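Bench log. Compound arrived from synthesis this morning; before running ITC I wanted a structural hypothesis for how S-adenosyl-L-homocysteine sits in the protein. Inputs:
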Amino acid sequence: MDRTKFVSERELEYQRECTERVRAMNAGMTAFVDTYGCQQNEADSERMRGMLREMGYTIVDDDKADVVVINSCAVREHAEQRVLGNIGHMVHYKKINPEQKIILAGCMAGEETVRQTVKKSYRQVDALLDTTSFWRLPETLLRLYEQGGRLIEHAEPDSRIAEGLPVVRTVPHKAYVSIMYGCDNFCSYCIVPYVRGRERSRDPGDVVREVRELAADGCHDIMLLGQNVNSYSGGGADFPELLSRCAEVEGDFTLRFMTSHPKDCSHALIDAIAAHPKVERHIHLPVQSGSDEILRRMNRRYTVEQYCELVDYARKKIPGVIFTSDIIVGFPNESDEDFEGTVELVKRVRYDSIFTFIYSKRAGTPAAEMDDPITHEQKVKRFRRLMALQDEITLEDRRPLIGSTVRVHVDGESKSGELNLTARTQEGRLVSLKGDSGLIGTYANVKVTDITTFSLIGELK
Ligand code: SAH
Ligand code: SF4
């Protein structure tokens, strides 16, 4: 087995030593991990909470805590502005509690431009900790306490995997399991490969063991995570094989995965989903654009026809499967014709829902150098048109569900209104319903009484 891709036991042992030393000086301090962005960040945050708890901190939901870790997202400029805005506010808390430690973690911490900005203009930030080295959190805190000063130096991404980190899950019946880290695809608009480092896969034995432990603990919702799960390659296993092995683990749970890149989504994967009822009947298959020319300039390495062939094959093999997607509108120089291609594709695939983004220029990516004469107003217009079209499709395709009974897993409490619970169908659709909070973490049969673009409305049977 190739152990060079793993952080060595000696280095992990050093982190445990640092953990003990922080714990020894920790007299009732609190810590808050604030998460932005994708499920991968959620998963990293669960691990950072685990490490903080082992260091003796009480985990709280409050940015006045003694340690605040901001697990940031760099995918779009808007996300970065939000993070910087919040760090801006925190300057006041630090005046009240000068011992507070603020750590900027996540994707932004891997960007050189952010490092420069934080160094000069956000002096309240004590340390940067990029996504490839967050396992060094104990060492980072110890150094801050013992040596003072700031840890804002440049760090190359660490292309290794740290196994066995402790974890604090936000919800006990729901778990993220990272199967791989980083990305080698270099889609021309995307910053992820630069900030999350090279692609590396965990060993299938480690992944299956984690799934087995979760299932034995009664976890009902297990999501396998990676920037591109289809390029998983660990210990000789590919993703269809890993998915099958995980789905064969005993227990009553749903297995989900995120994200599938269409270029490596194989018939073998679709066959594996079809063969295993525990795998969610849903494929999130981001298409990004419905124009071959834009796909080429995005460096996505598939065509609209190849994409549609996959969707058709899956629909044939997996009855009731639903698709969701990510779409970028306003990629540099996207013509009206290119955009019409996207509209046509959305009509053809009929997604259950889509995440639509207006292209955001990311410094250092190839797309940032491309000419872009399209005005922001034009991009917003296209964005709105696509959203309206998808809303129509979502409602039309969900309407026949009214009156039917679906099996759901009750996930949690909803923040809004009468319908106090949220649940998920076997296809991963969100359901809002009224019921006792004791149902959270259990399965239930629900009659669909109405639908919205956001969720199904249900009544307990
Ligand atoms: N690895 C995943 C998702 C990565 S980021 C995948 O390949 O599907 C999630 C989504 O953000 C992407 O699918 C894309 O639609 C969007 N995105 C990434 N970079 C972007 C950018 N520069 N501007 C706008 N949207 C972007
Ligand atoms: Fe970004 Fe493409 Fe990698 Fe997804 S596959 S993270 S969009 S570079």
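What the model suggests: The chain has a mean pLDDT of 95. Residues 182 and 199 are 4 Å apart (CA to CA).
ITC booked for Thursday regardless.
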